[in-house]
Design a protein that fits this description.
Helix content is 61%, strand content 0%. The chain is mainly alpha-helical.
């Protein structure tokens, strides 16, 4: 980061690395593949092994939730820009993102623990699927919706934080000639 600060002090701003044309990176591909595998099949395997343990369900949820947050915060999807782990601006924001993530994980953990503690007091209607094809118990659906809302809130605030940090470091108009803000070269 000190290199960026000194280049800004001298009046020269290096181009924003996230605006560079995307190119395939084997390292990034393997990293995001591992994160995806942790998020879906890894969480399921962990649920099979820890599902009956005290706090097992919460641990599984935190692992899957964390993988989803990393994947959707840093990857380019649905027209949103990518954020590169090696970018100095991103690295300077890791402590804030980590602290923010710990707070969201604490909320998720408390939410799940409270729901599981209240489960014996709930009417059977909340605990049993209706019997229709692909139906799920209402308690599970409510927890899923709350968890997804929590994840979306964290992802959007993380991306907003990273975008503001990039705009402070790389003000608009500092892109190299011929490069559009979406990172694609002009013809």
């Amino acid at each position: 980061m000190s290199g960026m600060a000194s280049s800004q002090a001298s009046g020269f701003v290096t181009p924003d690395p996230r605006l560079a044309p995307p190119n395939f990176s084997l390292e990034r591909f393997f990293l995001f593949t591992q994160i995806f595998l942790i998020m879906i099949p890894g969480s399921f395997a962990l649920l099979l092994s820890l599902g009956d343990d005290q706090y097992g369900i919460q641990i599984v949820a935190v692992v899957g939730y964390t993988a989803a947050i990393v994947l959707y915060t840093f990857s380019a999807n649905r027209g949103m820009p990518r954020y590169l782990f090696r970018c100095g601006v991103i690295q300077s924001q890791f402590p804030r993102i980590a602290l923010r993530h710990l707070m969201f994980v604490a909320v998720l953990f408390v939410l799940l623990t409270a729901a599981l503690q209240l489960r014996p007091l709930m009417p059977p209607l909340w605990l049993v699927a209706s019997g229709a094809p692909r139906s799920v118990p209402p308690l599970f659906m409510a927890l899923l919706i709350l968890s997804v809302c929590l994840a979306v809130a964290e992802i959007l605030t993380n991306r907003s934080l990273l975008k503001r940090a990039h705009l402070r470091t790389f003000p608009p108009g500092t892109e190299p000639p011929g490069l559009k803000p979406d990172g694609l070269s002009e013809p």
